[in-house]
Structure formats: C-alpha cells, structure tokens
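FAQ

Q: What does a record look like?
A: Structure on top, sequence underneath. For example:
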C-alpha cells in the first residue's frame, strides 16, 4: 500500500471529502449511528470527542 503524504493545510477552511464504502461497511456504520442516536450521544465537531446531550 502506498503511504499518503499530507502537508499542513494553510488555513482552517472546511474541506469536503467523498469516499466510497463497501455496502457491508456502510450498513455497519449506519447501525452504529443508530445505536449512538438511541443512547443520546453526539460527537462534537471539534476533535471527535463524545459528549452527552
């Protein structure tokens, strides 16, 4: 596998990223999101730290 080399982003401008996931992985992620929603847990936009609402 080729290593991805990333440099620093010059500013903090948001970047849109699109990825293609296998159907099985998408289902697992969707199931996990439903689980988190049922637990009333949200993830903050900064740092991905879980926080209770």
């Amino acid at each position: 596998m080729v290593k991805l080399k990333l440099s620093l982003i010059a500013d903090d401008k948001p970047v849109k990223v699109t990825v293609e996931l296998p159907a099985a992985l998408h289902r697992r992620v969707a199931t996990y999101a439903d689980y988190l929603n049922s637990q009333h847990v949200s993830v903050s936009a900064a740092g991905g730290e879980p926080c209770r609402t």
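Q: Is there anything notable about this one?
A: Residues 1 and 21 are 18 Å apart (CA to CA).
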